[in-house]
Amino acid sequence: MATAKNTPKKSYFKFIKWFWILFLIGILLAITPFLLASWGALGPMPEYQHLENPETNLATEIISSDGETLGKFYLEDNRTPVPYDQLPKNLVNALVATEDARFFDHAGIDARGTFRAVAYLGSKGGASTISQQLARQLFVGVRSRNKFEAITQKLKEWVLATRLERNYTKEEIIAMYLNIYDFHYNADGIRSASRIYFGKEPKDLKTEESAMLVGMLKNSSYYNPIRREELVFNRRNTVLAQMAKYGYLSEKEKDSLQKTKMDLNFNPESHREGLATYFRMYMQKWLNKWVKENPKPDGEKYNIYLDGLKVYTTIDSRMQQNAENAVEAHMKKLQTEFFVQNTPERNPTTPFLDLADYEIDNIMERAMKSSSRWRTLKSQGKSENEIRASFKKKTEMTVFDWNSDSYEKDTIMTPLDSIRYYKTFLRTAMMSMEPQTGHVKAWVGGVDYKHFQYDNVIQGARQAGSTFKPLVYAAAIDQLRLSPCDQLPDSQYCIEPLKHGNPDAWCPKNSDGKYSGKKLTLKEALANSVNTITAQLIDQVGPGSVARIGKNMGITREIAEVPAIALGVSEMSVYEMVGAYGTFANQGVYVKPVMVTRVEDRNGTVLYEYVPETKDVLSKDVAYAMVNLMEGVTQFGSGARLRHSYNKNATLYKEIITGYPYNLSNPIAGKTGTTQNQSDGWFMGMVPNLVTGVWVGGEERATHFKSITYGQGASMALPIWGMYMKANYENEELGVSKDPFDKPEDLSIEVDCAKYQKEVEEDTDVEDDIEDLDF
Q1: What is the per-residue pLDDT for 52?
Q2: pLDDT for the residue numbered 34
Q3: What gap in Å lies between CA 699 and CA 424, rounded to an integer?
Q4: Residues of the chain under the 70 pLDDT cut
Q5: Which CATH number do you get for residue 591?
Q6: Which of 127, 239, 354, 664 is the S-S candidate for 211 at Cβ 3.0 to 4.6 Å?
Q7: What's the CA gap between 21 and 570, in Å, rounded?
Q8: Domain boundary residue among 237, 268, 299?
């Protein structure tokens, strides 16, 4: 009987024993895959250090002085991270509501969501948490189509998700996830996505905009708002519904937002498009040079495409936009008139004037051999005959066209004809600088970087024409202590042979070939670019002293020490000329133009800070006298059109371009410049805290206007300066000065010509009285 009574008890304990054995085996079987994944038995896992600091390729960011991103340098990843505190609350709410409603309650794995996914085989949604999705983005990669590999990847995601939860806060995980995601069209991370799709920073996103971007997280290639607008619209509204479901929006708010249009502001970020393209390409060269000379502490070089450098520049994005708008508005009209006047039967394939056929052939031959097409084909082993034949074969291409909305048109022409076609277009350069600091505020190297990649600001150098004359006047006032009110005769003047290194006599003519015979003040002479008086001045001071002043004012190109430099035959860049004129505006102190104030690494550590480079060139009195001289140019000389108002009734382009839509009344000093045959048009303009230079001309000197009416600097270049400054003045936040130039105390050079003339007359009377005395 005893044995019988113990049987049920033994059976019970046996059952309990096996239950726990099987339970533990089940637990072991359940955790073994995770252990194997954790140990790396199912494939490599990231090291702990990598987990602590997951590296992603970060674009180098070019930042304006007013805090705007001008552009980025990147290879594949256009990514700039945004910290959590700069993400809008509506974006975080949309993400959590749509992707992981219990994100703030779990430790990386959502048990309820996992059981639901298993029970319904995924038909009611997946189980991936935000942490798991981040793990996949950072370490695991795209889900494999092989079922076994897919399961292995999922196990790794679970393990890594829990590790991420231990190493980072919930807020850091959200920020990392949004910063790592690829939103398509080079929109790597939420900052690029916000800028590319809506033209704004993430913190400024509206709720419906955040919802659209969160909707793209499901599959940015499929949910592409540019190609599948209706699909993305519906997906966005699903996200808004999720936000209402979890209490982030009221039903009324949801209904209202779901009716709104997506209102995209698509701004693809490209190296060849956007704001300040020419400046950004200059910065690329500057950075490449800088990283060679400034390695990391371990000796490795910084990578400007991957290391996430932040480059803080002096460019003001608002002034840069004003500059580009002015260039676009004027050059489009000027080119239209150029085609009307200069091309027989309006055929834009004959861009050259005054050249023989063999000279044109030489130009085309040189252009063909220096083209990227020639270099590419030659590197491929093609023979010269094959290369030349390819230039004569018609092909489809997209070319620049001012008359198209996008400034591009598709056409069919030979590569040789395309070279000739592009030479019909006038080019330009513009740079604007704060003379007291050397900070460059705007930089426009051409009309369109995508199609004209030569930067005329710093690469290009052209004859300066009459814009060089102020350097001659400065040497004369400095050495001879002349006043702007001193007078010289406007009559034929010759510098004798062998003087100042000239083998022959030099007898420059005035631009109109006429001589008034009158005595003109230096102020009148400079205002009207009277060549004969400039010749007299350089004869008195010598070309060597003028060249030395030019060198001290930052001109690095060779200035031949011959009298002809007085008329601007030497070639200068806009960059050099703006720096030189800045000396006048900065009371005689040259400040080297600066474009970069500092460089930081991805962690904010300062790697570079600029140190100003300055040089005392002129006294304050001489510099002010020069400013006073150049004020005459805009008061009654070749720049006087800046003072006039716009002719609203103008109908012809000739009336419009000479209608002067500026009406500027504040003190302005400046100088126009025009070279022989109207090949180059210049205008240099200054107010107390801004010096700006503009050049316009063809790529070839033979590409120019037939007449001086349009070919002079006052018509080709000055309008850009006028429109730019007018736009600057309309934005008072820019702080562009309207005040008079600072006048030195106890000025030793008389600039008031009425007062000066009275003193001269009084001195003459005294001399006459002395002569009349009978001793």
Answers
A1: 52
A2: 46
A3: 8
A4: 1-12, 15, 17-56, 76, 108, 110-127, 138-156, 158, 343-350, 644-660, 761-775
A5: 3.40.710.10
A6: 239
A7: 96
A8: 268
Buried b (16+ CB within 10 A) or exposed e, 697-716: bbbbbbbbbeeeebbbbbbb
Q: How far apart are CA 680 and CA 714, in angstroms?
A: 11
Residue 496 carries which DSSP code?
Answer: P
Classify residue 677 as left (phi > 0), alpha (psi -120 to 50) or beta.
left
Residues 138 and 216 in one domain: yes
For 24, counting Cβ atoms within 10 Å of its Cβ (0-12 exposed, 13-18 middle, 19+ buried), the class is exposed
pTM confidence score = 0.80
The pLDDT score that the predictor gives to residue 256 is 95
Q: How many residues are listed for the chain in this entry? A: 775
Residue listed under structure tokens 């150029």: 338
Residue 415 and residue 435 in one domain = no
User: Are 446 and 374 a contacting pair, CB within 8 Å?
Assistant: no
742 DSSP 8-state letter: P
Question: Measuring CA to CA, which residue among 523, 552, 541 is closest to residue 479?
Answer: 541
* 358 & 471 share domain: no
Q: Which domain holds residue 624?
A: 430-598+615-734
Cβ contact 266:226 at 8 Å: yes
What are the DSSP E strand ranges found in 183-267?
Answer: none
Which residues have a Cβ under 8 Å from the Cβ of 396 and sit 6 or more positions away?
Answer: 410, 411, 412
Q: Count structural domains, the chain.
A: 3
Query: 210 and 318 in one domain?
Result: no
Residues 160 and 263 in one domain: yes
Show the tokens assigned to 16.
């309990």
Same domain, 674 and 645: yes
CA distances from 125 to 103, 112, 762 (A): 15, 12, 100
**For the packed helices 2-39 and 147-167, what is the interaxial angle rounded to 10 degrees?**
80
Element (H, E) at 365: helix 357-369
Measured distance CA(617)–CA(549) in Å, rounded: 7
Distances (CA, A) of 405 to 30, 41, 413, 423: 63, 59, 21, 21
Beta-carbon contacts of residue 112 (< 8 Å; ≥ 6 apart):
102
Pick the last residue of a domain from 238, 268, 298.
268
DSSP 58: B
DSSP string, 158-176: HHHHHHHHHHS-HHHHHHH
Same domain assignment for residues 263 and 310: no
Q: Nearest Cα to 446, choosing from 568, 317, 574? A: 574
Residue 609 lies in a domain: no
Q: How far is 399 from 408, CA to CA, in rounded Å?
A: 6
- Residue 700: phi and psi, rounded to 5, are -105, 145
The sign of the dihedral angle between the CA atoms of 615, 621, 627, 629 is negative
Task: Please state, in angstroms and as integers, the Cα–Cα distance from residue 708 to each residue in 117, 256, 337, following that order.
Answer: 79, 62, 13
The whole-number pLDDT of residue 231 equals 95
Residue 540 lies in a domain: yes
47-91 residue pLDDT tens: 444 445 555 678 899 999 999 999 988 876 778 888 999 999 999
CATH number of the domain encompassing residue 151: 1.10.3810.10
Kindly state the tokens that stand for 437. Answer: 């600091």
